[in-house]
Amino acid sequence: QFLMANKLDTAMWISRLFTVYCSALFVLPLLGLHEAASFYQRALLANAFTSALRLHQRLPHFQLSRAFLAQALLEDSCHYLLYSLIFVNSYPVTMSIFPVLLFSLLHAATYTMKVLDARSSNSLPFLRNLLDKLNGNQQNILKFIACNEIFLMPATVFMLFSGQGSLLQPFIYYRFLTLRYSSRRNPYCRTLFTELRIVVEHLIMKPSCPVFVRRLCLSSISFISRLAPTVA
């Protein structure tokens, strides 16, 4: 009854579980490397489907207008719909599947707990403990996802020069990264950029750091800072 009463949430729950399943079979290619590539695409397509459902839930009344597009781009679900479309037809990259896998796992765990509560307050204690541990590490998981989002930017450039990526991919991914940086709901991308900058500046200011390395890092920090969007 609980599942039927929340059909849209249940559909997203099932698609997230399927995303976790496909992502796991890509990361751990138990069925062979050829099958792993197909699971990579299935995971991203399932994530795109989930993101589209979530975006419809957040913005139910679609309008073909600039204002609606601007509003949609503020939603995290729109960001990951774009993310899935960026990588679904590209060369499989393990780094790119981790954000999809972990976000799906976190959201599926939250809804699984609701399903267990609807069934009985004491049902499946072992699964409850596992889900509690997962939710207890949510902050570390979100930081890891943000770290993946950041380091995928140079990875897309490397893929371009190695012949495994398209010319447009780095530019489209840069747009995705600016959306994540400006996210209202998830500040971890901004937090990670700040933390990485502090760590790099601390290391290069040590007397043992060569001068040319210090200048190169400071120039890189200045360049990346200019590219960062302004956040309201």
Tell me the strand percentage band.
under 5%
The averaged pLDDT comes out at 88
Q: Note poorly predicted spans.
A: none
How far apart are the termini? 42 Å
**Helical percentage:** over 70%
How many domains, as an integer? 2
> Rg from C-alpha positions?
20 Å
Q: Give the SSE order as H and E letters.
A: HHHHHHHHHHH
Number of beta-strand segments: 0
Tell me the number of helical segments per DSSP (H or I, 4 or more residues long).
11
Oligomer: single chain
Biggest beta sheet summary: none
Shape: globular
Structural class, please? mainly alpha
Provide tags for this entry.
232 residues; mainly alpha; 0% strand; membrane; TMM33 protein; transmembrane helix; transmembrane
